[in-house]
Specification:
Layout lengths: L1 H14 L2 H4 L9 H17 L6 E2 L2 E2 L6 H13 L3 H26 L7 H7 L2 H6 L6 H17 L6 H18 L4 H6 L1 H4 L9 H21 L7 H13 L10 H9 L4 H10 L5 H20 L12 H17 L4 H27 L7 H18 L8 H22 L7 H12 L1 H4 L3 E4 L6 H13 L3 E5 L10 E4 L2 H6 L4 E5 L8 E5 L1
Parallel strand pairs: 3-4, 3-5
Antiparallel strand pairs: 1-2, 5-7, 6-7
Helix pairs in contact: 3-4, 3-23, 4-5, 5-6, 5-8, 5-17, 6-17, 6-20, 8-9, 9-12, 15-17, 16-17, 18-19, 19-20
Length: about 525
C-alpha cells in the first residue's frame, strides 16, 4: 500500500508540470532566433547538408550547427511538423526541472523538493525560453547538470559525476561556444575545494567525450572553409565583446534579472544573501557562483535577457530559501505576509482592470488570449490574498505556488507563448491552400532582404511555405510559370516581362507572392 502511495505521488509530481510544458494547439515561430534556426533545420532536411549552417545558398559560419541538427533530427524522426521542432527544447526544459529537483534534494532535503522546479517553471524567463526553439534552455540545462555533478562529487571515488562534469562542458560548447567559459570562470572559487577533480582521468575522459560532437563537426566542415571554423566562431565572439546593437550598460542586469525572474525575484535576492552564512557547498553554489557570473556577464559588452537563464535553477533554489527565511523570521514575517497578501494582489487586480477597460482593444490579442490572460491574473491575485498568519509552511508554499502556476498555465494554453506570429500564420494558411501553391515551389528574391523587418518576415514566410524553392539574386532570374516571394514591385512595373500578383497582404508586407506568366 505504501509503495502504491509513493508511486502515485511521483506520478502527480510529473503530472503537475504538464500544463506548464505541453501545448498541442497551433504554433508559429518568431523570426529571431528560433525561426532562423528552424529555417536552417529545414534546409538540412531539404538539401541533405548536415554539416554547414546555411542561409539560402550561402554559409553562416558564426555559430555551430548543434541546435539546427537537433531540430532536423527530431523532425526527421517524429515528422516534419512544428511540434517536433520544439521537442529538443521541451526535453531540455524537463531535464532542467528534474535536475533542479535533485539539486534541492542534495543541498537542502527531499522535503519540499518539488517546490524549486515549480518556482523555476513559473518564472517569466524560464517559461518564455522553454517555449522557444532556441539553444538557451538546452545550454542552461547542461550548465545545471554540471552544477549538480559538481555538488555530487564528494571524493575521487565519485567517478560517474566526475565524468559527467567533464562531459557537459563540451556539449555546452557545441551549443553556445565561448559562453561556456562564463560559468566555468564563476566556479573558480569552488574549484579550490574540489581541486582533486582536475587530477582525475575521468574528468579528462568526460571532457573528451563531451567535445566529440564539436570535433566531429569541425573535421567535417573544415574541407569547405578557408580556415578552421574556430576562427569564424572567435570572430563572432569578438563582435559580441565589442560595442554592437546588444551592448548595454554595466548595471543592465541589476534591473533586468529581477524583472525577468518575476514573480520570485524578491525571494531569490533574500535567499541569495541568506546562503552566505551556510555550508561551503551552499555558499559557493547558491551565492558566490551566481554573483560572480552576473558580474562577469556585466563586464561583457553584449547583454541580453537570456544570458542569466543559466543560473535560473540556482535562483529558484534561492527563492525557496528566501520564502523559508521570511516565514521563520519573527521580524519580517508580518511585513512579508502583508505585502504578499494585500499589496501584490491589489496591484495585480488594478493592472487587470486597467488592462480590461483601457488597453484590451489596443493590443492585438484575440478573445481566447484576452480571456486566459485576465483569468490567469485574477487567479494569481486571489490566490495570494488567501495567505494568513496561521498558515503552516506547507500551506504557505502551496498558496504561493498556485497563483503563478495558474497564471503561467493559462498563458501557455492561450497560445501567447506558442503562437507568437498568429496573424502571419493565418495568412500563410490561406496562401498554402491555393492550388497554384500546392503544385510548385516558391522561390525567394534575396534582393528584398534589406533590413531586419523584411528579413524577419521572410524567415517566417519561408517556414510556412509548403514547398520552399531556392533564393534568387534578383527577380530577373525568375523563369516562366515560376512563383517568387519578392519586394521588388518597381522592377516588375517597368520591365518587359509579364507578372501576376498572386497574393499580397499588410501582414506579409513588404513581401508579395508573384507569378511570372
Amino acid at each position: 500500500m505504501v509503495n502504491k502511495i509513493l508511486k502515485f505521488r511521483n506520478l502527480f509530481k510529473l503530472f503537475v508540470f504538464i500544463p506548464l510544458i505541453f501545448y498541442f494547439g497551433k504554433r508559429s515561430y518568431i523570426a529571431f532566433d528560433e525561426g532562423f534556426y528552424a529555417l536552417q533545420a529545414r534546409w538540412i532536411l531539404d538539401k541533405g547538408n548536415w554539416t554547414i549552417p546555411l542561409w539560402w545558398d550561402g554559409y553562416v559560419l558564426d555559430r555551430t550547427i548543434g541546435l539546427q541538427f537537433l531540430i532536423a533530427k527530431s523532425q526527421d524522426f517524429f515528422g516534419r511538423n512544428i511540434f517536433s521542432a520544439y521537442l529538443p527544447t521541451t526535453v531540455a526544459g524537463i531535464l532542467m526541472l528534474f535536475i533542479t529537483y535533485k539539486l534541492h534534494e542534495e543541498l537542502f532535503s527531499k522535503k519540499y523538493a518539488i517546490i524549486s522546479p515549480l518556482i523555476l517553471s513559473t518564472t517569466y524567463l524560464w517559461f518564455d525560453y522553454s517555449h522557444l526553439a532556441t539553444q538557451d534552455i538546452i545550454y542552461s540545462s547542461l550548465v545545471t547538470i554540471g552544477l549538480f555533478a559538481l555538488v555530487k562529487i564528494k571524493s575521487k571515488n565519485n567517478k560517474f559525476y566526475i565524468l559527467l562534469f567533464g562531459i557537459w562542458i563540451g556539449l555546452a560548447f557545441m551549443m553556445k561556444t565561448f559562453l561556456v567559459f562564463i560559468p566555468l570562470i564563476s566556479l573558480l572559487p569552488y574549484f579550490f575545494i574540489k581541486k582533486n577533480l582536475f587530477f582525475s582521468k575521468f574528468f579528462w575522459v568526460g571532457l573528451l567525450i563531451g567535445f566529440i560532437p564539436y570535433l566531429f563537426w569541425t573535421f567535417s566542415i573544415n574541407p569547405y572553409l578557408e580556415k578552421n571554423i574556430i576562427f569564424y566562431l572567435f570572430e563572432k565572439f569578438n563582435f559580441l565583446s565589442s560595442k554592437n546593437n546588444f551592448t548595454n550598460p554595466f548595471y543592465y542586469y541589476l534591473w533586468n534579472i529581477p524583472t525577468t525572474f518575476m514573480p520570485w525575484s524578491f525571494f531569490a535576492i533574500i535567499g541569495t544573501i541568506q546562503n552566505i552564512s551556510q555550508s561551503k557547498d551552499n555558499k559557493y553554489i547558491l551565492t558566490f557562483f551566481p554573483l560572480i557570473l552576473i558580474i562577469t556577464l556585466s563586464i561583457f559588452s553584449t547583454k541580453t535577457p537570456y544570458y542569466p537563464l543559466q543560473i535560473s535553477s540556482i535562483f529558484s533554489l534561492n527563492a525557496y530559501v528566501g520564502v523559508r527565511y521570511l516565514f521563520n523570521s519573527k521580524r519580517y514575517k508580518q511585513i512579508f505576509l502583508f505585502i504578499t497578501s494585500k499589496i501584490i494582489p491589489l496591484i495585480i487586480f488594478s493592472l487587470t482592470f486597467t488592462y480590461y477597460f483601457f488597453f484590451k482593444n489596443t493590443i492585438n490579442l484575440n478573445s481566447k488570449e484576452n480571456i486566459f490572460l485576465i483569468l490567469g491574473l485574477l487567479f494569481f491575485g486571489i490566490s495570494w490574498s488567501f495567505l494568513k498568519q496561521k498558515n503552516s509552511f506547507k500551506e504557505l508554499l502551496i498558496i504561493l505556488i498556485i497563483g503563478p502556476y495558474l497564471l503561467t498555465s493559462f498563458l501557455l494554453q492561450s497560445g501567447l507563448f506558442t503562437d507568437r506570429s498568429r496573424e502571419l500564420r493565418e495568412k500563410m494558411e490561406y496562401v498554402s491552400s491555393l492550388d497554384i501553391v500546392k503544385n510548385q515551389p516558391i522561390k525567394v528574391d534575396k534582393s528584398g532582404i534589406k533590413n531586419s523587418l523584411s528579413q524577419s518576415k521572410i524567415i517566417r514566410i519561408a517556414l510556412l511555405t509548403p514547398k520552399l524553392g531556392e533564393g534568387l539574386e534578383s527577380i530577373d532570374q525568375l523563369k516562366k510559370s515560376e512563383l517568387v516571394w519578392t519586394t521588388d514591385l518597381k522592377r516588375i512595373n517597368i520591365n518587359d516581362f509579364s507578372f501576376k500578383v498572386i497574393y499580397e497582404n499588410d501582414t506579409l508586407k513588404p513581401w508579395k507572392l508573384i507569378l511570372k506568366n
